[in-house]
Amino acid sequence: MAKRKAKRAPKLVLKLADLEQSKSAVLTSLSSASSQRSYDHAIREFVEWYCSEPRLAFNKTVVTRYRISLEQRHYAPSTINLRLAAVRRLAYEAADSGLLSSDLAAGIRRVKGVKKLGVKIGNWLTAEQGRRLLAAGRGDSLRCKRDYATLAILLGCGLRRAEVAALRIEDVQQREEHWIIADNGWQGSPHQKRTGS
Asked: Is 80 exceeded by the pLDDT of residue 6?
């Protein structure tokens, strides 16, 4: 009687090949090129940190230690939270492929992000500055009209440069008496972005 093939047991410690396989699955699951770049960078940084200490188990405790190391490097809360989101996704894909136990992956997904405290710093336009910028784009030439339309979408919809550059005419649609930009597969964006009434 032939012996049944034993099911491969999930691992506690993931090797570089396991992490690369899981990273590839994460990147394949993302439709946005911008998200792929962000997650690729975040996962590569985590893998470098994870592999710097031998025989670390891939679990909640280790990911919490990673979060603390990011905080000690004084990264912004949004940067830390993006890195943690990438690591959670990595754990999910590793569990999905049988490399990591679902219990360990669930623990990793419970690692809390960093609270965003205070006011965002940076060069943010006031409403008046936005109006002045938009007014500067006015003109009769085709180039001026193009620039004005681009600025209006950037300011009015809060799109990123890459999102505006990727817009196609069929993405702008009228639904329920409102003009919207239909979701283009942008990671983290709503299904519709309203552009006007």
From this structure: no
